[in-house]
Amino acid sequence: MLRALSGAIALSALAVPAHAESLGVSTDVAFESRYVFRGVQLQEASVQPAVTLSYGSFYAGAWFALPVGDDDVSYGDELDLFAGYSAPINETVSFDIGVTYYTYPDAMSGFFDDSTNTVEIFGGLSFDIPFSPTAYVYRDFTLNTTTLEGGVSYSIPVAEKLSFDLGGSLGYVLPDGPGDYLYGLATADLSYAFSDNGSFYVGARYGGSDIPGGAIFDDTTPPTVSTDPSGFWFGLGFSASF
Question: How much is the pTM?
């Protein structure tokens, strides 16, 4: 089922928590005109709040996808819980390991309902060099899939508090059986830092996959009728840390 390909957050996109031995809190509230995960669209428009707590190199948090408007093609609310450990290896390379529990409150009969919920572990490296590359491996033990994903990002200063932030990722999903596919995502955000710890952003996204028949809803037809290999959408949001 398509929901089995869902997930919620690409943890490689999370801000790495501070490594000082103190409690930190980061929050993000976003609106996305499509909810697309690893090249598969799971909802139309959704609100996506998240909170992350960190202490030293440890972090844990929750991420939500809450559909808004016409939800005929939605798989309902999603709540994902994650925890991990992130630390530098040297001045250039950092590692990140952890686990995510994907849950679907509208469909599950209980919190540990393994007919809808899935468990995924991940590990990755990030590099403090130009374009800030990352490389991650994910293993979902419920769906029996392995995902390889690499990403890059680049920020262009526009003014004292304004920047143009570019990002891209490419991934490969390998089930234990047939059905492997490639997916990609490109983002461009205009970000305004209203303080040292907070910012607003608005931008465009383009993504999709090589899944036969496509997995992005066609905006020109009822979304349950037609899909495309790729598509555009937009997002905006607010981020802050304390």
Answer: 0.88
